[in-house]
Amino acid sequence: MIKYAFRVLWKNRFFSLLNIVGLTFGLSASIWLVLFLQNELTFDLHHPNHERVYRVSHVFSAPGVEFNTAYSASELSPMLKEEFPEIEAFARFLPLQVSEIFYNNQLLQQPEMFYTDPAVFDIFNVNLLSGNQETALSNTRSAIISKTVSEKLFGQESALDKTVKIDGNDMIVTGVFEDLPKNTHFTFEVLISGASGREWATRDGVFDSEVLWNANCANYVLFTPGTDVENFKAKFGPFNDKYFMPFGNKIEGSHTLRLQQLPSIHYDKEAINDDFAKGNPTNLIIFSIVGFAILLLACINYINLSTARAGSRAKEIAIRKVLGTNVSRLKATILAESLVQVFIAYILSIFVVWGMIAQTPLQSWIGVSFDFTLFENPVLLLTSLVIVTITGLISGLYPAFYLSKINTIGALKGSWTANKSSNFFRQGLVLFQFVISISVLLSTMLMKDQIDFLQTKDMGFSKDQILLINTSDSIAQSKYQVLKDALESNTAIEKVTSSNFVAGTDIGQIVFNVERDGQQVQQEFKFIHGDEDYLETFEIPLVTGRSYSGKETRGNQYFVINEKAAELLGWDDPVGKNLGFFHQEVPGQVIGVMRDFNHFSLHNPIEPLVYVFNPQPGRHLIVRFNQNRVDEALAAVRENWDQALPNYPLEYSFLNDRMNTLYEADKTQSKLIGAMTVLCIAISLIGLTGLTSFNISQRKKEIGIRKVLGAMTVKIVTLIFSSTLKLIIIATLIAAPLSYYIISQWLQNFEYQTALDVGIMALGCVGALLLTFVLVSSLVIKTARKNPVDSLRYE
């Protein structure tokens, strides 16, 4: 049976090759997609105790205030362990203010550094490559670093017992851990012992409830085996009343505890203000549907070609029946042909996927990272084999039943022809292929249009000529005024400022006291701070009032708010209104209103914002340079930096590049769908090539007669293409509204949306039409140009 299947494949090499190539594309996409889904759906499952580990998060509410935060007070976890025997261990991650490591007079800028607790080894799977887990973080001023950081600092030397300076203190490296997997919601590169304990929550022997409302670190707790977390939450009420609510009652507030199981965090639908990047389950559904569609297209190709060639195989099948082959065996033989081709395609797809992952920049282009280890990954191996088997059955079952029913007498007489229902079924499958391919093509084009819109939309401030220089170190900050004066004297540079916050990317959040209806009430605001040149540097205009002059003596004396803040507070004339920080006894005044600008990505609406004067340098030196003079500006920055800070490396980035990263997830989605679109179109065209070639081969005699009777090549092309044209028009009429609906739903993820461009949809439809026309025409023209004598002599 298998031998016969290979013989049939070899006899029909062209059509077999088309089938195998299409199936290879489909299976390659499916295997890669299984890897992608496995990577996404196993977030944090590599941690041994993941079922018992929970992140402690909170909702703090009060009139005018709501913080839904993934962070907690550092004092909370020790208190929980003291009060509740269900908590076996805890680990806190308190981020460092200055992410720098000094070693041998060399400076390494290193984000993702945290103070933590020794129990981190119980919470997360921190695999030490060197060092002792029991003692690595047991002493103060000890640090463990990732393998990548170790190689940056020490090369191939051992990192153990080396002394580095972090956060102004000498730290002993007591361990090197394996780099964390990419599919973890929370990553770290350096962990330092010494997170603060409960003692900081007590003042003069009295517990200060307010400290628990100051969320400053990520808290994770490990519950004892068998703990019912819901029962634990029920027991939390008295603790909440005792420790959280004394301050909560003062501000008429409330506190709600949230416990998030470790594996659920990545896809938690709760909108948390300061959470880490989350996955989008809708994307997984979309990718799965498109991946299934790609594989289905390959199956349709096989079914179409197999049934289309039924006439050429009719005599062969009839003779096998006459020679005694029963229908069941005949079905099994035809099904074996399908399975053989699918397994050949499977072997090829293994090499294709390996090549895509290991030998091409595909993954970095899309923005994902995982390894292809088929035989070391039983889930992938088993899933891929199941997909292959199902693909073989889907592809082969209909042809097996269809071909085995060929009438023996009619086939031997040469009078057997396919009935109308089979032709209708085949056309329906081709129509389905076109609907899928055009729908995915149009959706991809509309997605790209939205992402281009996000990257070019005016956000209310200048982002295209802004240079951000890292000045997080105190020594670098001490040179701020020297650098500012020197840089602003260069004609290539327009303005220089400094802040911890950068418009569009970094924004703070704090509670103010505001004047409303003659009283001072609390109100939460987003806020930024900077010196007197901050607004001018970002070209954020004032609507009314004035900005800072630089002569202010206190940062809480005057404030500038945005239009949204004035609207929220109901202030028709905001200038002169009282405004101050939460604990500020004597309020300051609003001196100006700035125009609204988008201080987050365009997924989010503009929120009320306060700009606070701060003459002290921040983590960013912000430079706005003249258009088309970026090289001169960079040269001036380097020269003046080297003069002011000769031993410090210059690290800079452009704001527009940084802001583009806000849409990385959208671009990844668009790229992935785009790659799948190419596959959909390629597989559909492969199938169309096979059907057209077979159709032409069956009509060679007709083409020859038409040529003899004087028909032009254009007329013959039009005749052959007319049936395909009808299918494309019908498919377009179905695909266009379908794509419109899909993208309309996808756009709900964005606060700012571009209008769905009908012109883009029309362009995509015309492109699909032209592509199929070129393909069909090239195949028909090749035959039509031949000498009609050869065509008529055929058969």
Automatic annotation (TrEMBL):
> Where in or outside the cell?
Cell membrane
- Give the membrane topology: Multi-pass membrane protein
Q: Can you name one GO molecular function term for this protein?
A: transmembrane transporter activity
Q: Where is the signal peptide?
A: none
* A Pfam family recorded for this sequence: MacB_PCD
Q: Which InterPro entries match?
A: ABC3_permease_C, MacB_PCD, Macrolide_Exporter_MacB
> Where in this chain does the record put each ABC3 transporter permease C-terminal domain?
289-407, 676-786
Q: Which keywords appear in this protein's UniProt record, sorted alphabetically?
A: Cell membrane, Membrane, Transmembrane, Transmembrane helix
Q: May I have one GO cellular component term?
A: plasma membrane
- MacB-like periplasmic core domain location is 16-235, 462-612
Question: Mind telling me which residue stretches traverse the membrane in this protein?
Answer: 12-37, 284-305, 339-359, 379-403, 424-447, 672-696, 716-743, 758-781
The principal location of this protein is membrane
Which protein, by its recorded name, is this?
ABC3 transporter permease protein domain-containing protein
- In its UniProt entry, the species of origin is given as Roseivirga misakiensis
Ranked from the top, the taxonomy reads:
Bacteria, Pseudomonadati, Bacteroidota, Cytophagia, Cytophagales
